[in-house]
Amino acid sequence: MIETNKMNQFYRPMQTQRPIQNRLQIENPIRPRCRLNAILLVCCIYGSFCISDLTAGETAEKKPAAAQLVVRDVNVFLVSAHGKKLNDTALFRSTTPGYMLSRRLSADASESDKPAPLGLITFEGPAVNDIDVLIEFPSGRFLSHWPTARIQSNRIYWRSQNLLKEGPASMPLADQDWLSHLQHADRLFVKGIDKTERFILYDVELNHAPGVVLTHTKAGFELQNREAFPLKHVTILQPTAQKQEWKLASIEQVPGVKKEEKKPEAKPAAKSPKIDPLADEVLEKKSKVEKATEKAQELAKVGDKLREIGVLPEKAAAATAAKAKPETPAVKDVPPVSIPFNNAEPLTQEKILSEWEKKLTGLGLGKPEVTHVLKILGQHAFREDQATVVYCMDEGTLDKILPIEITPFPDVLRRTAVVILLDADPALLQRINQLITQLGDSNWEQRETAQKKLEEYGKAAQAELQKATKNKDLEIVYRAEQILSTIK
């Protein structure tokens, strides 16, 4: 009994001091280590996945995107409101370098450095081998181009050109040449069979009659667009009494007019009574027609024999019946769009060109292309004797009158056409009539000045000059006929 009690006393404190769970932990020290190792292993695996994802994301961010080939086709068109052609040969003379052979008359030496409207194509991006550029048009003609290309009746084709990062230009331009900035631009070189250049230039004359009518208002202008396409970024430059300053009126867009064809009205068919083809009246009428036809044929044979003998004169050409003119698509009444002046104060040429620089940059043009357009605008858009209209042609219309095809197709193709519209100012008519009166001035120098100015106006003065050929003053008649022969 004593030994049993001693043993009970020995075990009780052990049971109270160490619960079963603690005893298991002490007795199995390997289990917690396994659990810890398993947890650490899971964390390591998860961490490795996270690190791999982060490194993959970092490499994706650091990996540079593939460079894109960007092609820009830029055109500036000069057109008269009384003309029917864009870049008509009568509007300006060529100022391209001598090696760019042109069908357009060359400018005098004193004006050879003045910018003239030209089409420009530039390339930006990675080097590309064997690229084709084709420009064609439904109605018009090419007057000049560079580098050399294949020309057909209505197309020009630069075949198998290589776009290079480096390469000297075949024909370096002098620094004072107005096109020299293009040779120093950050653009790809275009290398053909025997010529290398940083750009493609072309001079094209297109058949296109503008449909813009301009009217003066107290607050600015009203403009009617009778074309089917909208006019974008419209700017009107009004000369002021102060030299080298113009009042500016502008609007973002003037909508075009949708032409609707007139459908002939369907007339209700009248119910005709049934007629017996074997009735006596029908047969009698038919026999009369047949007899009349036979007599007409007999008389015609007799007439031919008499003409052969010489009794009757030769048969006159039969008057062709006037064909009914096809109904032209009806044009809805075009509501005029009001274009107020932007500022009360007139602006200088530099400030107006800076506004156009922002517009052209927003259209995706780079510095070389913008500079090219601004030089031409500065030369031809700022007139001191009339208001001029400058706008961007709708790209869909440009693709229609001057489609372009590039193979392989570039990643980005930007096409921009700026139109300078002359002779739309209604005040110009009064100015022309004053000059026609001046043709009969007693001072010879005044007569010569008026004649030269009217020759510059060209077709804008043609209608009034036709009237002047019936003037009582023979000097006016003589000079008016001379001017008309020059215009034609």
Helix proportion: 25-40%
The total count of helices amounts to: 12
Please identify the structural class as seen in this structure.
Answer: alpha+beta
User: Which runs of at least 5 residues are low in confidence (pLDDT < 50)?
Assistant: 1-30, 317-331
Gyration radius, to the nearest Å? 42 Å
Distance between the termini: 148 Å
Averaged pLDDT:
81
Query: What is the overall shape?
Result: globular
Largest sheet: 10 strands, mixed
Oligomerization state of this entry?
Answer: single chain
**Number of E-state strands:** 19
Strand content: 15-25%
Can you characterise this structure?
By secondary structure, this protein is of the alpha+beta class. Among the domains are: 234 residues, no CATH class; 62 residues, Leucine-rich Repeat Variant (Alpha Horseshoe), CATH 1.25.10. Helices cover 35% and strands 24% of the residues. A hairpin with a 4-residue loop joins β8 and β9. The N terminus is likely disordered.
TL;DR?
This protein is of the alpha+beta class. The chain has helices at residues 2-17, 20-27, 30-62, 180-183, 280-309, 349-362, 367-380, 395-401, 428-438, 444-457, 462-468, 474-487, and strands at residues 70-80, 85-86, 119-124, 128-136, 140-146, 150-152, 155-164, 189-191, 196-197, 200-207, 212-216, 220-225, 231-239, 245-254, 337-340, 347-348, 388-393, 404-407, 412-422. Among the domains are: 70-213 and 333-422, no CATH class; 427-488, Leucine-rich Repeat Variant.
